[in-house]
Design brief:
Elements lengths: L1 H78 L9 H15 L2 E5 L5 E3 L10 H6 L6 E5 L2 E8 L2 H22 L7 E5 L5 E5 L9 H14 L3 E4 L5 E6 L3 H7 L1 H57 L6 H24 L6 E4 H13 L6 E6 L6 E4 L1 H18 L4 E9 L3 E8 L6 H6 L15 H12 L3 E8 L3 E9 L1
Parallel strand pairs: 10-12
Antiparallel strand pairs: 1-2, 1-4, 3-4, 5-6, 5-8, 7-8, 9-11, 12-13, 13-15, 14-15
Helix pairs in contact: 1-2, 1-4, 1-6, 1-7, 7-8, 9-10, 10-12
């Protein structure tokens, strides 16, 4: 039973450790997956920041290119003011049209009084108000044709304007996509001096609502991940600080949590086993008390019977002999129980005589329908014994045999030996035992009797195995045929 308890404890620890390992492995996989998502998100943000920067450079380049084309355009127009008769005016006009058409740039040409001369649909109108504002984003060009001063205004091409509108929307959503990310990454976007918050997401305001808290928060975030530097659409330099997601942080504590659960589980299992052991010990003590009463009951009942029988009769020596037997029995019971809790002294004694003493006492106090048969060697067999305890073992097995035979049958004891061991076979013609009962017959508290306490055979095993360093076991048992117990003692 003790081995089974320790096996249960070890099995519990092993299963809990295996569960902890699997859960830790699963949490590690989730953590790595979550960390990979954060890294991919940070990489995407970094690439998008580069795209924002490239878009600004692209528009600056396109604006410069259109400005150069307008300069070429005005330079060609200025050429009309030359006095060189070999100048090909038709070629210059065709080249002017090619430049204007290639860049698809809207232009307005005015005279010194700001009266529009080109294009024809606006000719004669004065450039002012909203129209002037629309064409005043770029610096105008001044030139003369055949002595007439003119001014050229232009605005970006339609393709440039449409693309600029799309990319402006892309740039405007950049910060929003950073702060309201679907990965639930806590982020802070600050200016180049790291003193102004340009955007935030998944972080409570109270954590950075003051300069000191902001600086502290940025230091904490920088310890987890390096900040990402990028440029905003307005050309300002900014920094993106981010930290691990709440899920990623919580998964860090999962192994410790389950380690704590493992420790608690082991402690609970240990105390359950300990309480079970205490309950069994309490049961054994109760059983011992019952067994004591049972052992004392036979001689006491006999003495009470003798007392009643002798009332009014003349006392003879035969009566005294029988009463002395019961008194000796009481002394024997007392000695037996006094030796259970300590290591008894063993002396070289005749094992056959000890067996015969136990049988003689029970034979006179058992049913006459029970036949006792002994088969002993002719020579005495001396073994280290404590006769008080050893006779108790024989009596327990004999009583169980009488109960199994319902008071009718044969109880046989056969003693044999070799150079090293003595073999004692105790057989009955009773009910026998099934294999499942045979496995548990020596367990403390196990009994097949309605009024039994299951201590007789467990005490017998302790006396033989622990005190006499021998063995006791069921040699043979078949239901309906009987049982044979074997005791093996060292010579």
């Amino acid at each position: 039973m003790k081995k089974i308890k320790w096996f249960i404890l070890v099995a519990t620890v092993v299963m809990a450790a295996f569960a902890l390992f699997e859960i830790n492995n699963l949490s590690t996989q989730i953590r790595n997956s979550e960390l990979q998502k954060v890294k991919l998100w940070a990489q995407a943000i970094s690439q998008k920041a580069e795209l924002v920067s490239y878009s600004e450079e692209f528009f600056a380049s396109v604006a410069l290119d259109e400005h150069r084309k307008m300069r070429m355009y005005t330079n060609i127009l200025r050429s009309f003011d030359r006095n060189d008769m070999n100048y090909d005016a038709d070629f210059s006009l065709d080249y002017v049209r090619y430049i204007v058409d290639s860049c698809e740039t809207a232009i307005i040409i005015t005279d010194p009084d700001s009266i529009i001369t080109v294009p024809n649909e606006l000719k004669g109108q004065k450039l002012e108000g909203a129209l002037l504002d629309e064409f005043s984003h770029n610096e105008p060009f001044h030139y003369s044709i055949w002595g007439m001063p003119l001014t050229l205004y232009y605005k970006e091409s339609k393709v440039y304007t449409d693309l600029r509108h799309v990319l402006d929307g892309f740039n405007e959503s950049f910060l929003s996509e950073i702060t309201n990310n679907s990965v639930f990454v806590p982020v802070l976007v600050v200016d180049s001096l790291q003193g102004e918050v340009l955007g935030s997401g998944n972080i409570p305001l109270r954590e950075f609502d003051t300069p000191d808290r902001l600086a502290e928060k940025l230091c904490e975030m920088e310890e987890e991940n390096d900040p990402i530097e990028f440029r905003l659409p307005n050309g300002r330099r900014a920094y993106l600080f981010y930290e691990n997601t709440p899920l990623l942080k919580s998964l860090t504590w999962v192994p410790l949590l389950y380690l704590f659960i493992l420790v608690v589980l082991v402690i609970i299992t240990y105390y359950l086993i300990r309480n079970t052991r205490d309950m069994e010990q309490n049961k054994i003590w109760v059983g011992m008390a019952k067994e004591t009463a049972h052992q004392l009951g036979t001689p006491i009942s006999s003495l009470m019977a003798w007392t009643q029988y002798l009332e009014g009769k003349t006392f003879t020596q035969n009566y005294a002999t029988e009463i002395n037997k019961d008194l000796n029995r009481l002394e024997t019971v007392t000695l037996r129980f006094s030796k259970i809790g300590s290591i008894p002294e063993l002396n070289d004694e005749n094992v056959c005589q000890a067996i015969q003493n136990a049988i003689n006492y029970l034979q006179t106090r058992s049913s006459r329908k029970v036949k006792f048969v002994t088969n002993f060697p002719d020579n005495d067999i001396q073994v280290p014994l404590n006769s008080y305890l050893f006779e108790w073992v024989i009596e327990n097995i004999c009583k169980n045999a009488i109960d199994a035979m319902d008071g009718v049958g044969t109880f046989t004891v056969v003693v044999s030996s070799d150079t090293r061991h003595v073999y004692i076979d105790l057989a009955d013609t009773g009910k026998g035992m099934s294999p499942s009962i045979q496995k548990r017959i020596f367990e403390s508290g196990f009994t097949t009797k309605q009024r039994g306490w299951g201590l007789g055979l467990s005490l017998a095993k302790r006396i033989i195995n622990d005190y006499h360093k021998g063995r006791i076991f069921v040699k043979y048992s078949v239901e309906g045929q009987g049982t044979v117990f074997r005791i093996v003692l060292n010579r």
